[in-house]
Description:
An 8-stranded mixed beta barrel has the order 3-4-5-14-12-11-6-15. The chain has 18 helices and 17 strands. By secondary structure, it is an alpha+beta fold.
Amino acid sequence: MGLLQNGRARGFVVVGFMLVQACQGSHREVPKKREIVEQPRELSARTSDNIRVALRYAGDNDGKINDSVRLDHPDLLQAWYEGHAYSTTWVHPPAFSPLADSLYAFLQKGMYAGLYPSDYHGKQLADIRTRLQRNTFDDKDAVLWSLEDLLLTDAFVGITHDLAFGRLPRDTTTLRKDSAFTKDQYLNFLRHVCADEKTVAGFFDSLQPALRGYVELKEALGRFLDSTQFRVYTHIDYPDPDTLNFFRQMLTRLKEEGLVPDSAAAPDDSLAWVKVIKAVQKAKGLKADGIAGPMLIKTLNLTDADRFKTAAINLDRYKLLPDSSGMPKEYIWVNLPGFYLQVWRNDSLQFQSKVIVGHLATRTPVLTSKLTNFITYPVWTVPESIIFKEMLPKIKKNVGYLTAQNLVVVNDRDSVLNPFTLPWARFNKLYFPYRIRQLEGNDNSLGVIKFNFPNKYSVYLHDTNERDLFSNVSRALSHGCVRVQDWRSLAGYLVRMDSVRYPMDTIKAWIAHSVKHTVYFRDHVPLFLRYFTCDGKDGRLVFYDDIYGDDKYLAGHFFQESLH
Length: 564
């Protein structure tokens, strides 16, 4: 009986303990909505206590402090504030510190660094700051002071990450070895700026790339922001089967931007309209052909908000590269949407050439490699994708197509076969035991020279037998390789350090006499094929067409729409 009673007693104790624990758990401190503190000397202590409660609550609620405030880095903030007895970092109630003013000022102009203030509690911080500066009861509210301090710290962490690493996903072409700071690094950064107690601007500047392209793009973005008002213009529907509606939208849009006078009416005749369109195209830097076509309409529909987002995406693309100290002293840079190739040495542009790149169906890959050699009068082995998609249907209709295109069929022993004896009707993408090659010569698709570099895509730089295509504004036309207009300058540059073996006159003689040679140059030159849709040139933003739709994808997945 005693044992039973003792067992029951122990059971009651256990149950009672569990009830107490459950009650304590259910009464966990919840952040206050408001706490007015009349005595200034008590305000800091109450603010610190509110920070403690808010962080513990946020830790259990996925960063949420209340229905409108959510911290992005609650664990990191908990470590920081716990290590400082939950004292404030940026504010000294009832006043802001110079450091807080510095961070807030940077956030207000965050767009100048390609950032959206809304990503870092911009509107919430502005609203709270306004309330605290009214000198009413709000400036005695310990809850408001705690929220301001927490949100400033959370913003600092987010800005630090995005200035250093950007917001784009890492992929196989990312050359930076690091992709994030550790918790200890963030804590050290906070200690560093707190020790300064004046400004965060210098620290934020130190995080950003020193690459020339990044600096020029950021400067151009600044000038753009100084002059733009982010107006929303009339969207022009295109194509629009209602011709009258199209002209009405077009005229309204041109008036909004001051491209035609407000009093302008629709031109009475087509010649007058062509004159108007040519003037608009010239103002927009487009080919002035007088046709209100897709390129003009796309340009007119592009808003300043779109332009800012494009610039921001491209600033972040630079953050996937190593900083200036990690980039090679000499390299070749091909910007696919810009349709240009540049050769850089010691941060100085040596020369630039137009290029033709892959069209959307056969895009040129983004990659990093090194040029190893070039071949004069190369033979082109046709990729299977081109054989099956383009050539095989034509050959089946007329085997003479091969001869007309200077193509030969070879077997696995490199023996040239008679194409008229082959059973072409039996061949398909699952069965084709041969290779097709285009013999060297001026009619060869590779032109008279091919520049080789290791890559898994079987692409290369080369000349072309369609040199008139370099006059096109849009040059996404190839099967994936990069056609170089000024291949002579590129070849001469690559052998300039080995002029004894390969004097340029000799190379010119080989080409003049249709001689095939492989030239291995002493120093392999790094090559970057990259996708940048915006540059900074002469202090202004220059935009290129998003030929593969990469910007559209990134804008929808990694960048917020709000500019506030």
